Inverse folding.
């Protein structure tokens, strides 16, 4: 049970009846939604509900088994063009620990075809307050600091869609504030965001839409403005109790 | 094509930067190769077997084993913090990722060779200067085949439960034609025969390189979950 | 429990072929009784190459169609192939000792190639055992199944070149003797019966794989 809520501009993400199976297991089982520029979907749900799989399909890491997914109108699996529009943040940092924060972010910028990357790399690091620690190897940074670098690497190419899989994990309070601020800035610049989190308050503070995922499906999906936090928390707890 | 080469170059440069920063794999492969030269010398009776008869086999056996040390590192740096997901989610193609890793491995293996071969000439008292040109050609042909197969199996082995234990088992049978061809060609050179006599072996190496560079580049995308 | 005819027919055929080879086929003039090993050695070698050829084909088609049945077939064929390769590697030296005066002959291209066939497909089985995800196991082993088949000609060629450049003293190396009709017929019957045995083994192994996968699937859905 899912519904199309978005209105207005051409959607950045259009997902229709998307399914992804691993052998006999249906990790994502018929998900439909869309996101317009500047919209943010907060995705909640128990472990194993299919949230990460959904994000990996949208990031181009997994192919859909059936149904369709489009990013800026390009059907997935969409090759380099679709992948270049997406920025991925996950609970793994995806960094090379022997390289510095600056080198990691610069490498990422180069992968996305940005030739003269210097200014954008510095800007991304500045936004995550990492400029003063950008020179040493990532190995010497704390987990939270590494997560900030990872966020900088995901937005250095100004993606149209940011996929954030538990981006708050490992961040301290100031890191979490910096992340929320950056995501809000991206939103107002027209980036669409999907954020997977276990923290209702952080998730809802950013979101224009919210969904609870369970056993590969959206069991609730609505505009954030209509959400009564108490009833939402109840659904979420039920979903957690029922398991993935 | 230009996109693939550019992506491959970015990835190779990144891998070499990491290796240059840590130097751990390079030093261990180099020390392994030098130790191997020394140990092999004492494993034979120098009055019964001439060093020039022994040297070709020693050189190429050590070459494959020290290569394995570097190859394992190739994909373990990618899996540590799931950096490979970052590569796969980027616009760079899978073929470019494979070629980039392979180019970095080729430079790694070449750098070990560049020290190990002169060391062989020194320890085994061989006049390698006279055959330097053909020997370098053999080394390059052998390295390309070794790196193509080794890079692919490194990508596979790192995702299995046995990890680095599996790499030699998968890769060594594939190194057999390389070791036979390179050793036989080298011993022709060292016994003062004209290069043309090693021609069949060089053709075999070249054919191996062409077949396995193509096959492994095409096979790599299938080792990535999709 | 359904009684299957294939194992019975294959078993009877192999027994019949062995009895015919042992008692109703004349002794070869030069090699004597040792030559009779050929009626096992040659068909086993044929089945080994057939098995790994089919692994490579099933692997290639699997990467295209992603049908798990092809993966189960490749798995079954590789295991049965390793069994027959082992038979080749045991019977070859047993024959070589009285005829060539040595158990192992590095100049014999077919024997050495078979040894590497054995190495490649034992590592194929080890690779399968080292991967938990069925989907990944199928892809990885398909890649190895194809590359292994590409490697065999190179091994064959390098061993052949090695042997021709380093000729070794051979005690009467028999160049493919023209077998009399009776012996040819026995060899032909052995080939047929061993091929039946291969298909019978692969079928049993395949059924085992199906049942195992069904059980795992049921256990996963329960969890």
């Amino acid at each position: 049970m899912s519904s199309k809520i978005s209105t207005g501009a051409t959607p950045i993400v259009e997902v229709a009846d998307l399914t992804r199976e691993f052998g006999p297991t249906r990790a994502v089982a018929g998900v439909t939604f869309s996101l317009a520029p500047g919209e943010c979907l907060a995705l909640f749900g128990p472990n194993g509900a299919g949230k990460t799989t959904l994000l990996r399909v949208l990031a181009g890491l997994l192919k859909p088994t059936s149904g369709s997914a489009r990013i800026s109108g390009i059907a997935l699996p969409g090759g380099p063009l679709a992948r270049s529009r997406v920025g991925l943040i996950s609970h793994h940092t995806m960094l090379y620990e022997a390289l510095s924060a600056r080198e990691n972010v610069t490498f990422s910028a180069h992968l996305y075809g940005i030739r003269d990357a210097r200014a954008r790399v510095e800007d991304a690091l500045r936004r995550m307050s990492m400029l003063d620690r950008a020179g040493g190897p990532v190995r010497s940074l704390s987990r939270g600091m590494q997560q900030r670098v990872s966020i900088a690497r995901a937005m250095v190419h100004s993606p149209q869609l940011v996929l954030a899989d538990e981006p708050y994990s490992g961040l301290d309070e100031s890191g979490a504030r910096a992340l929320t601020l950056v995501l809000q800035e991206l939103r107002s610049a027209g980036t669409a965001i999907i954020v997977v989190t276990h923290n209702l308050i952080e998730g809802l503070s950013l979101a224009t839409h919210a969904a609870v995922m369970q056993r590969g499906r959206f069991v609730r999906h609505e505009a954030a403005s209509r959400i009564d936090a108490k009833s939402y928390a109840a659904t979420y707890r039920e979903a957690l109790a029922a398991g993935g | 094509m230009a996109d693939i080469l550019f992506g491959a170059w970015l990835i190779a440069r990144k891998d070499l930067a990491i290796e240059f920063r840590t130097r751990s794999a390079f030093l261990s492969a180099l020390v392994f190769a030098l130790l191997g030269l020394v140990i092999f010398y004492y494993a034979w009776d120098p009055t019964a077997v001439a060093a020039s008869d022994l040297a070709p086999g020693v050189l190429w056996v050590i070459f494959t084993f020290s290569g394995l040390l570097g190859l394992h590192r190739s994909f373990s740096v990618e899996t540590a913090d799931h950096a490979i997901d970052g590569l796969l989610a980027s616009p760079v193609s899978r073929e470019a990722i494979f070629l980039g890793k392979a180019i970095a491995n080729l430079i790694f293996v070449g750098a070990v060779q560049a020290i190990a071969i002169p060391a062989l000439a020194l320890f085994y008292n061989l006049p390698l200067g006279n055959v330097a040109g053909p020997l370098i050609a053999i080394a390059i042909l052998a390295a390309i085949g070794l790196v193509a197969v080794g890079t692919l199996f490194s990508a596979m082995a790192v995702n299995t439960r046995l990890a680095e234990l599996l790499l030699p088992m998968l890769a060594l049978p594939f190194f057999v034609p390389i070791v036979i061809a390179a050793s036989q060609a080298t011993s022709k050179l060292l016994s003062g025969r004209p290069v043309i006599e090693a021609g069949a072996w060089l053709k075999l190496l070249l054919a191996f390189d062409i077949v396995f560079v193509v096959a492994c580049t095409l096979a790599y995308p299938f080792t990535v979950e999709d | 429990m359904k009684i299957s005819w294939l194992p019975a027919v294959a078993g009877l055929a192999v027994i019949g072929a062995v009895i015919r080879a042992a008692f109703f086929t004349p002794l070869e003039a030069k090699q004597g009784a040792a030559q009779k090993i050929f009626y096992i050695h040659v068909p086993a070698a044929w089945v080994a190459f057939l098995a790994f050829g089919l692994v490579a084909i099933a692997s290639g088609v699997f990467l295209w169609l992603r049908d798990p049945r092809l993966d189960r077939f490749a798995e079954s064929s590789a295991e049965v192939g390793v069994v027959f390769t082992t038979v080749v590697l045991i019977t070859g030296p047993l024959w070589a000792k009285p005829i060539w005066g040595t158990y192992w002959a590095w100049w014999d291209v077919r024997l050495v190639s078979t040894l590497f066939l054995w190495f490649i497909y034992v590592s194929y089985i080890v690779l399968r055992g080292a991967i938990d995800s069925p989907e990944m196991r199928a892809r990885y082993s398909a890649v190895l199944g194809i590359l292994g088949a590409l490697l065999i000609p190179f091994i064959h060629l390098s061993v052949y070149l090695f042997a021709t450049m380093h000729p070794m003293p051979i005690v009467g190396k028999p160049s493919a003797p023209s077998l009399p009709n009776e012996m040819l017929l026995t060899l032909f019957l052995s080939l047929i019966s061993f091929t039946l045995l291969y298909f019978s083994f692969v079928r049993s192994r395949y059924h085992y794989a199906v049942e195992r996968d069904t059980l795992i699937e049921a256990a996963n859905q329960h969890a």
Observations:
- The radius of gyration of chain C is 20 Å.
- Chain C has a mean pLDDT of 87.
- The CA atoms of residues 127 and 141 of chain C lie 7 Å apart.
